[in-house]
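Project channel, design review

CF: Before we commit to the Quiscalus mexicanus constructs, I'd like one complete example in the thread so the newer folks can see what an input/output pair looks like. Taking GPAT3 acyltransferase.
RD: sounds good, go ahead.
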Amino acid sequence: QWATIRLQKGAKKPQPQVPRTPTANGIIERDETPMEKEIALLHRADFEFSHIFYFCRKGFEAIVEDEVTQRFSSEELLSWNLLTRTNVNFHYISLRLTVVWVIGVVVRYCFLLPLRFSLAAIGITSMIVGTTVVGQLPNGSVKNYLSEVVHLTCSRILVRALSGTIHYHNKENRPQKGGICVANHTSPIDAIILTNDGCYAMVGQVHGGLMGIIQRATVKACPHVWFERSEMKDRHLVTKRLREHVADKSKLPILIFPEGTCINNTSVMMFKKGSFEIGGTIYPVAIKYDPQFGDAFWNSSKYNIVSYLLRIMTSWAIVCNVWYLPPMVRKEDEDAVQFANRVKSAIARQGGLTELPWDGGLKRAKVKDTFKEEQQKNYSKMLVRNGSVG
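CF: and here is what came back for GPAT3 acyltransferase:
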């Protein structure tokens, strides 16, 4: 707070103003009236060329500040946390602030980073060795118990390596065996955050390198579901294997992130319906990080995994809240998409996140032409319905 006040009042030269949180006060002010009502009020008379300015304004709004691409960059902070100011480069304000920032760099890089790196190495090594040893045991209750002990212990070491402070709420709703846990996705460490409080069967693609070694070791002790790249493209095969897992009530709950990509801790985007076609009980979980202590969001288009891990391991801490929501089942009159949207809405409400209908795949892909055409048809229908086109 002191640093923020100094930034606001102590600058000798006027500094460029940084936009406040886009989710609260955007760059531009939009009307909250739905488009259909706006056009109905606008076109009470015959069509005039000036009416096209309505669509021009909407277009400019989308170009200046659309509600999708801003979800794929770090959220802006209202106060400085002595780290970089998220999306804005560092500006010199005063010698006093600069000295405080330099001291923070020394503490984070010279003291915290070596300690955290040592803990991470211990946690990863223990995970590989422990699961490999447990994997040699015959299947049974003893193996399952020891596997859970190894996973929980190693996950808690890894959370300590991030200086993680996690608050779990409503633990009576924790996912049970034979169920499916779905959560919003901000970071690769989401899985460690959840595993710190309970064991899950992970679902994902087979990797190489260190991640591949960990996957091959853990699958020997725990029924994780790893897919080859060719299998991931076969949705029916994936669904079949997940159904077989859920049908066995003795197996750990499956952990799935239906968004399919990391979103910047401000919103929840479209849930893919595949996770909700499997059947079984869905256990929603809402995860919300506190950005005052460190930015947990992984912008995979800007940072590789090594750079990202270095950033979070040199932050002050990883602080977050985890809410276990009551279990949900699919209603008879619901399809998979409707069920997914209902679960997404519950997670967004509990986590204080903005609910968006857009596909997280837009992080790397352009909007499909079919979607553009659909919007154009909707505009035409609204114009014709209001008597604007003869």
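RD: helpful, thanks. The longest helix spans residues 95-135.
CF: The CA atoms of residues 170 and 324 lie 6 Å apart.
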